[in-house]
Specification:
Elements: E1 2-15, E2 18-24, E3 36-40, E4 48-55, E5 59-65, H1 69-75, E6 82-89, E7 102-107, H2 112-123, E8 129-134, H3 143-149, E9 152-157, E10 164-165, E11 179-183, H4 186-195, E12 200-203, E13 219-222, E14 225-228, E15 235-237
Parallel strand pairs: 7-8, 7-11, 8-9, 9-10, 11-12
Antiparallel strand pairs: 1-2, 1-6, 2-5, 3-4, 3-6, 4-5, 12-15, 13-14
């Protein structure tokens, strides 16, 4: 984990409420897909945890929804703006357990970290299927980017305006897969967990304070004890998840 300064290279609207920001700076502490960045914003007390979508040798990309004061402030940042952030937080996904035909399932804001995971798995020679879930077509993003990587991409929308009508779990029937990776809101994770035929890893969304495991503000009770989602997570193994409701 490092505290670094970044320069905004680009910040653009992708879809309804959804923005893509590229940040230039030291990304050497990023080790795995599924880690996150904790961004400091002028005038805001708490940092904003945002999943890392992808990274290169000198920059990283985040995709975020402008749904509150902090993220709305981020949406207004122009090219050249400076930000400070803690980088390379969280444990990330373990790609060694994927088997030959991993299934990746993402919903809404849970989709971005699956992009780098897809890229990594394909680089390792895996046959990747990705299910991307949205509320409607006007909220859809990154479909062509996942397809261009070489993944088999399946789209679902709650209102049927694009792809399969229904939830991400409606697209799981009949799929042949060796392992499951999922990221999204907890009700979606629970539904995927109940339907998945394999072991897997699930990335949880949680409100955070410090982002480094000190404040204990994001503690989750698992089958193997209490976990700090910011440090011991956000990715948990299927066998250790204990659903709270």
């Amino acid at each position: 984990m490092k505290k670094n300064k970044f320069i905004v290279k680009s910040n653009r609207l992708l879809a309804k409420y959804t923005y893509e920001m590229e940040l230039k700076g030291d990304i050497s502490s990023i080790k795995r897909p599924g880690q996150f960045i904790h961004i400091e914003l002028d005038g805001f007390f708490l940092r904003r945890p945002i999943s890392i979508c992808d990274w290169t040798a000198s920059s990283l990309t985040i995709v975020y929804k402008a749904v509150g004061r902090g993220t709305e402030y981020m949406a207004g940042l122009a090219e050249g703006a400076e930000l400070e952030a803690l980088v390379g937080l969280g444990n990330g996904f373990d790609t060694q357990k994927s088997g030959e035909k991993p299934l990746l399932i993402g919903g809404g804001a849970g989709i971005p970290p699956l992009y780098a995971l897809t890229r990594k798995l394909l680089e390792n020679g895996k046959k990747v299927t990705v299910v991307l879930g949205f509320n409607s077509a006007d909220e859809a993003f990154y479909i062509s980017k996942f397809t261009t990587l070489g993944a088999n991409v399946i789209i679902t929308t709650a209102d049927g305006s694009l792809g399969v009508r229904g939830l991400v779990t409606d697209a799981m029937d009949g799929l042949d897969y060796s392992y499951t990776y999922a990221c999204g809101p907890e009700p979606m994770l629970k539904a995927v967990y109940d339907k998945a035929l394999t072991d897997g890893q699930y990335s949880f969304e949680e409100r955070m304070g410090c982002g480094i495991g000190v404040c204990m503000g994001c503690v989750y009770r698992s089958k193997t004890g209490y976990k700090r989602i910011c440090k011991d997570g956000p990715v948990l193994e299927k066998e250790e998840i204990l659903w709270q409701t």
